[in-house]
Amino acid sequence: MPKQVDHRERREVIARALWRVVEQRGVTQLTMREVAQEAGISLGQLQHYFASREAMLTFAMDFAAEQTALRVDRGLRELGDRPHPRDVLRLMLTEMLPLHADARATSRMSAAYVLEALHDENVHARARGGLLQGRALVEQLVRQAIADGHIAPDRDPVTETDLLLALTGFTTLLELDVITPQGVLTAVDRHLDRLFTGEGRGEGSGKGSSSARADGRS
Asked: What's 37's domain CATH number?
């Protein structure tokens, strides 16, 4: 009998090949032919799954977002049943930064997607929608932390959310070796220490384990 092809698995293989092209050769080399060669399939086979470069890139970006979400979910389970909001926010921020191999791949994929979004209205709308959804989640966590007394009540949740997301701007400095991973983690922790009052949180809770996870994968 002919071997059954798992179409989802084949799409993921193509997405990872696309990531490797972006990571190793840059977004300028991101053509369907280059991705097909990297994936070890013919251009015709790739076009069977993706009719256009945009469709291929969109799936790869969606897959990257799924992988980031899975890493965050694993981290949340490690934090226990009732993690402190500071630790949840720290986990989310560090997984969006290129601090280990998996995060570097998804981060570079995101950078390529943003460049595409600047010149394609459909990609722009999709990318903007995903970022708005992520931003809403962070703001929800900040608002709940204020309501629970972990963050001072006079803090503006909108501004604090914007400042937290601005920390992901360390990506460029990391990629160009302007700042070290430990320097980024120190800056993130310093910002979170200033934001949170420390009420209801054990001394040093979560910091050590989160740092170890962020630093330990390369």
From this structure: 1.10.10.60
**Same domain (yes/no): 25, 59:** no
Asked whether residue 108 falls in the same domain as residue 30, the answer is no
Which candidate, 59, 77, 94, 66, places its Cα nearest to that of 189?
94
**What b/e readout covers 70-103, taking b as 16+ CB neighbours within 10 angstroms?**
ebbeebeeebeeebbbbbbbbbbbbbbbbbbebb
151 forms bridges with which residues in the sheet?
A: 196
Domain that holds residue 114: 54-216
pLDDT band at 5 (very low <50, low <70, confident <90, very high): low
For 102-138, write each residue's pLDDT tens digit. 888 888 888 888 888 888 898 899 889 989 999 999 9
